[in-house]
Sortilin related VPS10 domain containing receptor 3
Amino acid sequence: MASQGLLSYTDSSLITIHKSFYKLPPSPLLEGTLLFKQNTSDPPLSSRIHHLCLAFCSFSCLPAKQFSSTPPLPPKALKATFLCKFRESPGLGSAPAALGKLGARRSRRAQPPGSLAHWGRRGPRARGAAAEELKLTSTSFALTGDSAHNQAMVHWSGYNSSVILILTKLYDFNLGSVTESSLWRSTDYGTTYEKLNDKVGLKTVPEYLYVNPTNKRKIMLLSDPEIESSILISSDEGATYQKYRLNFYIQSLLFHPQQEDWILAYSLDQKLYSSMDFGRRWQLILFDIHSLTLMFIDPLFYAKDYSYAHYLTCRIQECSETTKSGPFARSIDISSLVVQDEYVFIQVTSSGRASYYVSYRREPFAQIKLPKYSLPKDMHIISTDENQVFAAVQEWNQNDTYNLYISDTRGVYFTLALENVKSSRGLEGNIIIDLYEVAGIKGIFLANKKVDDQVKTYITYNKGRDWRLLQAPDTDLRGNPVNCLLPFCSLHLHLQISENPYSSGRISSKDTAPGLVVATGEDDAISWIFDEEYNIWFLDWGGALVAMKHTSMPIRHLWVSFDEGSSWDKYGFTSAPLFVDGSLVDPGVESQIMTVFGHFSLRSEWQLVKVDYKSIFSRRCNKDDFQTWHLLNQGEPCVMGERKIFKKRKPGAQCALGRDYSGTVVSEPCICADWDFECDYGYDRHGDNQCIPAFWYNPSSPSKDCSLGQSYLNSTGYRRIVSNNCTDGLREKYTAKSQQCPGKAPRGLHVVTVDGRLVAEQGHNATFIILMEEGDLQRTNIQLDFGDGIAVSYANFSPVEDGIRHVYKSAGIFQVTAYAENHLGSDTAVLFLHVVCPVEHVHLSVPFVAIRNKEVNVTAVVWPSQLGTLTYFWWFGNSTKPLITLNSSISFMFTSEGLNTITVQVAAGNALIQDSKDIAVHEYFQSQLLSFSPNLDYHNPDIPEWRQDIGKVIKRALVKVTSVPEDQILVAVFPGLPTSAELFILPHKNMTERRKGNEADLEQIAELLFNALNQNLVQFELKPGVQVIVYVTQLTLAPLVDSSTGHSSSAMLMLLSVVFVGLAVFLIYKFKRRHNFKYCSHPGVFSQHIL
């Protein structure tokens, strides 16, 4: 197993460390980040490590100094680091010299090859052996006695708190459980730790550590349920605990995002519990929940996504089966419920096509409107920041890319922002979209787009309206010119963010350090590859950067930069080399303390190294340590409708800001220009930046909610970018204009079932949805005729928005008709609904023997009998394609002799059942009805297998008594009581060509069998003491049956028909006596419609 950690955490200050090389225990309760202790025998973490790019948002990058205080490395081992700064115009403050517009090449004096000390203003200090090493203030603490523990969970309160909690565990992978654990607590940022096992109970084995996301002083521990099922609660950051017994095993927990004491718990036995006092008391609210997605929707509600796919909400204080409600009436796709900020998203798939719905601020759901022919096959919600939705949509013609769409405030109407954004799959198969939102400055995004089988990085400053490539640096680390000209060559960044707090990831930015981005990548001309990887952290509001090598080897140094990455100083942070498992930076905004987790050897105790950076900040910052700088977009000072001037530390100012610092930003609105507006829904941007209606969109058609006498906002084709703060200028020109609703006749009326199916079950609700493309919803009358003599009418669409329910009391095909009318016109829609009752059993009724070249009637008897429309699929002999009928009977002619199989499948709705029978086909045959002594009826279970075995027993008895060849005898036992059978006398299979002689032989065989039966010679023992005698039924022996026409054949067929009818009547009577029929038509069920 590689030494890189796996991620599974919910709190940025909570980290979980694994130093075992075995697979992790599957546990839905695990909070934190999973790390592995690094093995010196492991290969390097990556065989292809890219350079680091320290970038301001203008992304004009300069090569920065390598992370080394040693002499320059050979050219092939050079590490490329980019220093990227904002472009600024002359005269806009005391910022560094202007670099020109984005995309313009910046001239720079070439440096001598290998003279790396000239790259930064300060540069790493090259020191001799006698030079004093720079050291950071640090302390190390060993968790004594925990050397065997292979997992740890770490919580750092941060945010003005010095408390750190660590739970170390020994997980037995053979037993699949935690066998021992230790709880440690520090109150001095990790200088010292106290073991708290005696405070939680020496016999208690804490297994999981939870921190209240709203109040981090509240801590929860869950013990191992195999030893003791209990919960330990602390309200003072883990100083003291109270223990409470649990009568259920918790599988997953969910804390309310606002109410700090509200918790939901899902148990292993599929029950849902709630607690209103942070786990002290629990109340069972639901049970038998086979599939559950727990989500708090607002301070009062939670939502769940059942396996039978309905979105339900319930008040946590009084939740029960009777108080549940469904904000969305229709069924939804399983696990499609997504809740982000003010939005709730669901997916509904019907007829193979997915539709998406959104609820903004818990209002009624509205269908998401993508461009008409986007035809999505997959959709992911990327961001819901600033009251707007970014969504990645994979359209019908895409495989490994997604199109990026951006919505209006309500999340309903989406317009295209960028095509063919690269996607990949994570370790667990999840989809990862290469899109990154830069923190600290709104509206700036980076995306990797696939262009002609190449991946290129694009940047936008206005939330996706305009995108452009990134300019690569002018020179490499050795000072040689880099020939990378836009648009043929550009800088490519890796946009996989780190969800792991112990690693900086390939790209990161902070709200507290606006404009500074740390990223890895390469340009199209040069691949910046080296054999080392570094994690970078922001310190003290971005005033310093810390770099630590990510390696499987032990280390004792890290690097610090005070000039935004232009130069780096090497510091020692521990006296002995440490195998680093992870690092965690103080989550407070001043971020001057780091905890490094590791081991001095693979079998040593956990070592917690506290690194305090306060000593390297020489003083507090004063006004002379600051400069102003301006956010520019290709030289344009207005970004997202604002002109912003930031105050930041001067590069190289080695001073501290501290906790009480508040970043100063001077902002003023800009005059609205073209780039502040994007195309509205239904409009496409053309080459001249004009928004033109798409071919499928009718801009003159008002909303269906627009009723006569009301007004609506008629789009100009443009809409101001959400969260853009521009004013005046083009704002009035591009703002939607108020117009009177004209009133329109109904058009595009549709009637569909709520699940999109055309089949409904008798006696169950069938829910119909009426849709209208154009018209006046409030002034249009609606009538729905269910086709069974029942119809309903409504004055407008309001009562039918959630669907119209109806129960059919009989099966059949019903024509459902919807009719819409107002004073301007009318429209009609028709749906044919198949109402069925589930089929339970089918019996194939076929003759046992048939004559070649004569039609045979075959019937499928289905139970229950009143099923409505059924479809029958028939296979005869070796045919591979079925005959399909709507009738339960079919005639078929066999053209060759032998044993043939007949198979029928009966389809009713989603149900499909089958039966098969064998039929012997001959040129001619004779038959005789048989009966048995009455004792056989007592032992007759009336099942096919028993009848087949009895037929074989009778056949053997006949052969034994008469010595007739067994291939000329066939005995078929009939269903029902009294037990009866038919004896078939068949010609020898090799004698059909000598017909006349063989017919005489067949008469002799029949006479021989008849005499044996009349003399009671044919007997068999059913079981000890039960002897059964076979008789000839007192009917005349059937004459020869063959393929020739004649009176005797017809008479025999008529005689057999009479006999079979009588047997069938008795069979049905007997079958009803022995079995309970299920009928679909119930006298107590009446047709009804429910709103």
User: Anything to note?
Assistant: The longest helix spans residues 1047-1074. The mean pLDDT is 77. The chain is about 5% helix and 40% strand.
